[in-house]
Amino acid sequence: MDKAQKSLGYATSVIEADELVKVGNTNLASALYGKAAGVRIQGGAGGATSPVNIQIRGINSITGKSQPLIVLDGVPIRNEEVTNNNYWGDQRLRGNGLLDINPADVENISILKGASAAALYGSEAVNGVVLITTKKGKAGENGMQVDFNTNFSVDEIAYLPRYQNVRGPGMPSHILNLGQAADGFNYTADGMRTVPNSSTNYGPKFDGQPMQAWDGITRPYNAQQDNYSALFNNPVSSQINISISNATEKSNFRLSLTRQDNEALSLNSKNSKNIINLNSSYQVSKKLTTDLMINYINQNTANRPYSIDRLINNFGGMMTRFDNGAWYLDRYQTSRGYRYVTGNGQSLTPDENITGNGFRGDIADYVWRVNKNQASEISNRVIGSLTNTFKFTDDLNLRARISTDFTSRYNESENYSERPLAFGPSGSFGMSTELFSILYGDIMLNYKKAITEDFTIGAMLGYTARTENSSSVGRSTNGGLSTENLFDIVASTNIPNNSSNRQYRTIDALLGTVNFDYKSIWFVEGTIRRDRISTMNPNNNTFVYPSVNTAFALTDAFDLPQFITFSKLRGSWGIVGNYPDIYSANIAYSQNSLGVQQLGGSNVLFTSLPSSFGNDGIRPEQKHEFEFGLDTRFFNNRFSLDISYYNAQIRDQILPLTLPTTSGAFSVLTNIGTLRNTGIEIQLTGDIISTPNFQWDATINLSKISNKVEKLANNATELLHVDYDGNAAQLRSVVGRPMGDFYARPIALDANGNQVVQPNGLYKIDDQKWIQVGNAMPDALGGIINEFSYKNFSLYAVMDFQIGGSVMPTGINWMKSRGLTEESLNFMDEASGGLAYYRNDTGQGVGVPHSTAQGPNGETVYHDGMVMDGVVADGSTNTNVVSQAFYYWNTYNWGGPQYSQSRYELYIQDNNYLKMRELSVAYTIPNQITSKIGVSNVNISVYGRNLFFLYRSIKDLDPEVLTGGSRWTQTLTSAGTNPATRTYGVMLRARF
Amino acid sequence: MNFKRIFIYTILISGLASCSVGDFEDNYTDPSKLSETTVGKQFTGMIMSNRQSVLPSYWDYFVIKRITSNRYSQVVGWVNVENQYVPGSAAVNDRWNNFYNFMAQYRELQKVYNGLTDVKKEDNRVFMIAAATYFYDHTQQTVDLYGDIPWSEAGMLSINGGDYSKSYAAYDEASDIYTKMLDDLLGFANELGSLQINPATVVDFKTQDLINNGNIDMWKKYINSLRLKMLTRVSGTSEFSARAKSEIGAILSNPAQYPIVEVNDSNIMWDIYSLGTVIGANDFRSGLEDWNGNIAGKAILNHMVSNDDPRLTYVFQPGLNANGEYLGLDPLMNPTEQDALILTQTLSLYNFSTISRNQYFPGILMTAAEVHLLAAEFYLKENQDAMAKMHFEEAVTQSIGFYQYLRSISNNAESIAPVVPTAESVNDYLAMDEISWDAASGMDEKLSLIAEQKWLHFNVIQSNENWHEIRRLNKLDLEFWVDNSNQQNLPPSRWMYPGSEQTYNMENYSVVQPQDKLTNSVFWDMN
């Protein structure tokens, strides 16, 4: 064990290069699933360009940022937040800066979790730090060493809802009159069976007989089993990486070139990257060393994945069971290339107009957009750092570093003309440029001195500074293209739109540390840091915070039993400051222009005060954390156990306090929250079997997190995060509970506590009450990693799991209301538990035995009945039998009690799962064979990612598609990002 | 390599990287925002903040009016559904929040104004009179929905310097709010007559005034007409009846001093001058038409059809499959049959071209027809029948003219061309048994005529005003389906307070909680 690790007084998790590249992950973060205790990864659906969230030790902010700081070779890099759940704001799925880091260039990742670790990195380390160290130059056997690896993979659409394949579109006629004939089918004027005009799927059973679809084509009436996946690609991705490295006494370097081509499920979506990484170190003189790191990422993204929000979170876009994506791909454009036209709409090809029933305009619109709205991005990012270390003496050195993370992005959008110019201009063109830059510098003076043989002290004094700028300028056409499909600003029909945006942030800090080391048995380190930041009021923008940590090597201090190879106790305490989001503290007016508003008038300007009020007096929030840990290794390092306990309290939490609007704002920025995260992290590793021919290594890590909102304001007991669907459900944080409680409307109860059933036979929803149904914070998470090797073969498997953490995938539940999923088949007939009943003259369902042929007055007997357990208004037991179609249609509908009788409490479910995340089978060709052609370490593998669930509590989706943004509240409800995928690939690695 | 070089490197690097105090100060503020505003700009901002309640919006129509006033006044037909007489919580919350955001902008205007020197205050006085008038107009709308509301202490967060603990607002009694507004408006009416406005302010006010384009005479008419409306609203209460009588009398007898909106040319409206500004596209179409919110109610349509109302073809249009026949939806039918009837597309709809698809549809604040009906009621109760009749008939004429005006500014021609009213058709209408002033006998019947004309005039385009007057006058015998599933089995008498008050303003809310029932009347509702 090296001394640096031994002296560490706080928990870190280190993931080595080898574990990052086994299954060809396109980015670093998604290679971390299940690999570090206390680290939660959430990757958005959509492929290589979709964001990945990292959460370390739970969430440290009730409403603010929760992503850790990413530090690449000592310098912070850009990792912006994204929002992918706001369809009307942005239809394409954005990614974050972390995606640009190439796993193939990484030597290791170490994750710093606690407050004590943050002294060096400042306020953003409040959410933890991901330290990425890139590969350094190494000498091969004959000097220069060349490494090569390549992989090729395919994705397939996965974890779709369990669609039912029994019934087609429609409704029983006694529930909804859609003009059905007696046999339940609809017929055209000339007697052809045709689909009804309905988005529900409670219609007649599939029978294979001819049926006319919306496109006028008659097909056998069968369930269209893979109808939805027909809207997506079969993506193929590949990656090639070559690196050259060498090292001499005076210098070393590594140069690596990577080419990635990634396709996504979303049609026409493709991302290509060229990555150059140079890492070099040169000893200029005995005293001076210069390190240079340059990471250049050139990226070309055609059509970021298009959000499927309109197909999931919208009844109009839900494909019925007798409909098919392929039919839309045929008909979304006319033979002249214009957008499809429905009904009697204006068209140059009126006979192509779509007039049949069952056509879903939102699907056709999606298909048009995904094919004819083109968006390209070219981005160039340079992350570079130059470090000079000057050794004054053996005891004293000075290190100065300057770095930049600079990205320039150029975006273009070309939306094709939707109709002939004669019918009015359409289509659009837009172009914009964005610049992001971080300029970072630090200077550190290090001193280390052995006072006596047993006693060494060290000290460091430093200054760091950082400025972050971002700006964007864009122009776009206004009112359509004046020449069809002429993609330029000059084609703008009206005066072109323009937009611009700027943000600046400045941070600096003074820091110092002192440490001592007694006989390499006891280590103590103390740090102090003074931050200054521009997002705080300039009169009060500094904050000083300390930390201490200590490590004590038990095995060196005491005589422990032989089988304990090494054991270390560690403890730390620290404070980290954290600050408001950019510009959120400052109170200022928004201004806008209305143009001229009267004949001969002048331009009208107006201002308004935002409804979220700032606060010039905001104080930094403080995270106080202590932690203890024990790191023990047994039997000559064959087994190890690492346990940590932490307890972090975040005081003076900066958050927008919800106000009654009668006070003058919706919220005011305040320092009023106290949040506590406590947890235990355990990591067990073992070489369970270790024989020359067969090895089995296993790692299990587990973390239990409990989170509690300890205080809000003087009187406030809760904070409202989101109101869903017109008061149907709410997400709140309540004092005394973990944040993120889901609330929904309960079934109304009468004075005796009985559930009330309405005259229509469904439960009455109480629109005056709320009940807490679930909580969004997971209780525990972790991973299980197994690696088996037999001779030259090896099998590597990573599983990750989560226990608890409620989500509310509304769109998936709405599918039940439309009769799309298997659950909607329950009670549909006697065999599936349905009751028999007839409808009496008041429309009430009267239960009868299934053998009954007809009601007393000749009424039809139905067999799809259900009875709600409860009482009716007069207190008597409910006996009204209702159709299951009526029940599902209404119970899983959209909206709060004002709009519907949906029971959102049923939508909220715990998200427990155990997933096979990574699986790889590899064969290493023996070196004695390959060395004849000058090659070594040749390894061939097949692998898979996101292969299957061993268990999941939510059956109709992969919960990760809910990752609609960087903040936790954006990862709970919308399944409308993109479908999940499963990946299979092959890989070849070799060294020359 | 020597020390000098190292030193230079170090200086260079720290010079590049170190930050000055100025950087921190500059970067504290968003470069696209303003630290200061003017009375004029904030005045317009205040008006803009309330635009969704004035200019027809999806939010106001679909979320709110579709399930509340439109139904309670039966100006639309709808499919009966359980619990329909409890105002939806989304509607109640949104209406409330929108009003208080508007109030916050008004308070900010007061704050900016109060920070001026005395001379500057004098210069900007006209803005404050106009702002208060507009604010009071919408305060009345809100009070008439909820009853007592936080008002005199509300919206103070910014004035209190962001100290939220001081800003939790107590509830004012509705009658106190009326008293204060009536006192102030009387003061404005007198003050505006003699107000000297300096030329710079004239120019500024003309630009910033989205309502009357800086026309002071129009503001006078707005103020006095609003007084007339408020006084009439409370005239039935013992507290206000004497005041209402004397002040309405003073207004109507002094047109020179207290001008009112007498003809459509002086209607107080927020006009759409041009499309495509940040005011936003008019989404009246989806607001009114979505979920079949634009179906004609049976009672109102039958009244218009059977009396050959000259407004009929402006206000309604026959269903797509109705062969030109008008048909309204009966509220007493059972829901299944109502649903089936809607699917036949034979029910009449609110006119696309005049109303829902008219992108130039204005924000209506006060119309001549409304003012004349208020005057008719006053004279009727004063037993001046001839004056009452004159105003009543003028109201009908102005209302017909108003719908013609709305159609004339429309940019939509999807509905069939309306039948243009003639002097003869108007006179015929006024002579109809159900309309004619002279045919009605007694105060009660004549008051019913006024109530019906208000209903016809306001219909769906001012349905909140409609519901207020229906509750006050209680002359329309509208029959409603009785909802046995809910203890609120008929339309309510007021709205409940939003849940946010109970959660976030508990201490003050607890004072009004005992009265927070749907069956409690607003104080002016004497029925």
From TrEMBL, chain A:
Organism from which the protein derives: Algoriphagus antarcticus
A GO cellular-component term linked to this record: cell outer membrane
PROSITE patterns in the record: TONB_DEPENDENT_REC_3
Pfam families, per database record: Plug (PF07715)
Designated name of the protein: TonB-linked SusC/RagA family outer membrane protein
Membrane topology: Multi-pass membrane protein
InterPro entries named in the record: Beta-barrel_TonB_sf, Plug_dom, Plug_dom_sf, TonB-dep_OMP_SusC/RagA, TonB-dep_OMP_SusC/RagA_CS, TonB-dep_rcpt-like
Keyword Membrane: yes
Key words of the record: Cell outer membrane, Membrane, Transmembrane, Transmembrane beta strand, Transport
Entry annotated with the keyword Transmembrane: yes
Domain of life assignment: Bacteria
Span of the signal peptide: none
Ranges for domain TonB-dependent receptor plug: 6-129
Family per record: Belongs to the TonB-dependent receptor family.
Compartment list: Cell outer membrane
From TrEMBL, chain B:
Matching Gene3D superfamilies: 1.25.40.390
Protein name: SusD-like starch-binding protein associating with outer membrane
Originating organism: Algoriphagus antarcticus
Organismal lineage: Bacteria, Pseudomonadati, Bacteroidota, Cytophagia, Cytophagales
